[in-house]
Amino acid sequence: MQPPRARDRILLVACAALWTASIVLAQSHGDDGRDRGDAASFPAIDDHFKYGSIGTEEHVGVPYWIWRVLPTVFADKLPPGPGEGYARIGFLYDNAPHGRPIGTSFAPGRFATVGLNCATCHVGTYRDGPDSPRRIVLGMPANQMNLQSYLRFLSACGNDARFRYDVLMPAMQQAGAQIGFVDRLLYRLFVIGRVRNGIRDGERQNAWFDARPPQGPGRVDTFNPYKVMLGISMANDTSVGTVDLPSLWNQRVRRGLWLHWDGNNDTVEERNKSAAIGAGATPDSLDLASMSRIETWILDLPPPPIPIERVDRARAANGERVYRAACASCHAFGAPQVGQVTAIADVRTDRERLDSFTEELARGMNTIGSG
Question: How far apart (Å, rounded) are the C-alpha atoms in residues 139 and 119?
Answer without folding.
Answer: 8
